[in-house]
Amino acid sequence: MATAVEPRRHSRPRGIDARRRRTAYGLLIPGGGWLMVFFLVPVVLMAYTSLKSGGVLSGGFSFTWEFGNYATALEGRQEFLLRSMTYAALTTVGTVTLAYPAVYWIAFHAGRFKSTMLFLILLPYFVSFVIRTVQWKFILGDTGPVLGSLKDAGLISSDFHILATGIAVVGGLIYNYLPFAALPLFVALDRIDPALVDGAQDLYATPTAAFRKIVFPLSMPGVFAATLLTFVPATGDYVEAAILGSPKTWMIGNVIQSEFLTRARYPVAAALAMMLMLTMVILTSIYAKVLGTEDEALSAARV
Amino acid sequence: MSTTTQAAPTRIEAATRVALAPRSPRRRHPARWILPIYTICLLLFLAVPILAMILYGFNDIPGERQTPRFWGFTLTWYRTLFDDASLNEAVRNSISIALMAAILATPLGTSLGLALGRYGFRGKAGVSFVIFMAIAVPEIVLGSSLLSMYVQVRAPLGFATILLSHIAFCVPFVAVTVRARVQGMDRALEDAAQDLFATPFTAFRKVTLPVIMPGITAGFMLAFVLSLDDFVITDFNSGQVQTFPIWVWGATRIGLPPTVNVFGTVLFAAGVLLAGTSALARRRKRQGD
Predict the structure, then answer these.
(1) pLDDT tens column, A110-128
(2) Which end of chain A, N or C, is surrounded by fewer C-beta atoms within 10 Å?
(3) B141 vs A150, which has greater pLDDT?
């Protein structure tokens, strides 16, 4: 059999490259095809729907290049869009500032408790998101354990309430998105070699300076990813606003949901969703341009 | 994950620290206890609704709807856990959809992750971008666009549309998880296998697959959890069929029965137990090596 042994060629014969390419496309097609049919096509059809006219009761919708839907959709809705952006911005700032110090400590100082701590941060994921939000409604209820006892003790007036205010909605959003923000922050901070910090301190940098000049700049990709992963989904969220808020705290998601599912005004609802998507894409690209290249945005999303 | 690699430098660091002059010890000190206390407070904040959910599952309320007030302990809601047929069905739907979605999304996402992590091909940046978008776009946009499509092709909303939509949002997450694992893999292993006359397929099955298996398992679990918990996309594409989150959402308007807390607690305990045992098994296996 020894005669059958031939040395491995260093330059790959062309046949192998062609085979590799075939394998690559073979692997790509099933998943890529699925994403095409269930992500790209639906977005195109949503754009198509947003240009239809008619109504469910007046014999269905037909495609008429009805750009007026976009004006109709926005009429009196700027308030909701603006509120969504404001709430999402507050949520982003809140989650990143709340998560950063804790994640920093876990990444650099938690030692053998590192994975346990990380697991505890992700613990809320083991409870359904709707149930978690509903629990805050009970905890913060006017007669609940917090406000109820404060009222009994006479520390706050009896008509004080948190639910149905913007504070409750933003608080709920911050709670729900905190683990989302913590994960990319952890990945970025955990990647930093502690020897770099020690090196800086050996060169007589104060701990503050070492943090400001070494750790913080190196953790920026994590901050970037956390911001993106919080701001974008929070803008479209409607669960907290519905459960913890009131119609006065409705976000754009609540409007889209009710237009689609309650009023069945598909073209107007699709126009709103298109505008939300485009706004997010534009904001994300500007953000990526300002803070770095698109490649960085992509690699940030990879965590 | 990287704890083992970091153990060694820490010892060296400790040695250097002794050898060199002490660095402003007074300024390091407060941070030493402020940050851990802060971290514990944050973890408690994250746990509050979970503890509330567990506690209120024992609430001895006078009626059948949950109240903010805690009346005393009872096991009634554990005894009557399966009494509500519609809630049972919703939980069953959730679990079977999550299982099927994870089983179907895992091979689709795995092959996509392999293609992106190992091969160069034309349009790779485009595919990566689409995956990024599918993860980053607000869920409500995915939900509305899928609904637009189902309405357009007159597909009746129900179990099938929920499942198809769930597979759709799970695939990118599995792909990203597997890609990360593939990129971290040593390509020389596979080349070596082929040098030893393994066919590409055998090399894949005997070498590549075992190496990327943790990524595939993680992708599967992620898909299962994402599907089980999904509310927004399901809300748009479920029609009359209810999953657990949808049932809870519908019930919030009239008031929740405490059995919801019990189901939540059971699912939580099962999830934590599963994650805990798999983490322990991994640790034991690593120690055994």
Answers:
(1) 888 888 899 999 899 899 8
(2) N
(3) B141
Confidence of residue A213 (pLDDT cuts 50, 70, 90): confident
ipTM associated with this complex: 0.85
Q: Mutate which of B46, B65, B131 to disrupt the A interface (most A C-beta within 10 Å)?
A: B46
Tell the residue number behind the tokens 């597979």, with chain if given: B167
The boundaries of the domain holding residue B127 are: 84-260
Q: Is residue B52 part of a domain?
A: no
Q: Strand, helix or coil at B60?
A: coil
Q: Are B179 and B117 in contact (CB under 8 A)?
A: yes
Tokens representing residue B165 in the block: 């939509």
Q: Which of A9, A95, A127 to mutate to test the interface with B (most CBs of B within 10 A)?
A: A127
Alpha helix (H) residue ranges in chain B: 3-19, 25-56, 76-79, 85-118, 124-136, 139-152, 159-183, 187-195, 200-203, 209-229, 232-237, 244-252, 259-288
In a domain? residue B280: no
Number of domains in chain B: 1
Pair B228, B102: CB distance under 8 Å: no
- pLDDT, residue A15, reads 63
Distance from CA of A241 to the nearest CA of B (A): 13
Report yes or no: A139 and A146 within 8 Å, Cβ to Cβ: yes
* CATH number of B127's domain: 1.10.3720.10
- Half-sphere exposure (CA, 13 Å, Cβ side) for B141? 28
**pLDDT surpasses 70 at B122:** yes
By DSSP bridging, strand A60-63 and strand A52-55 are antiparallel
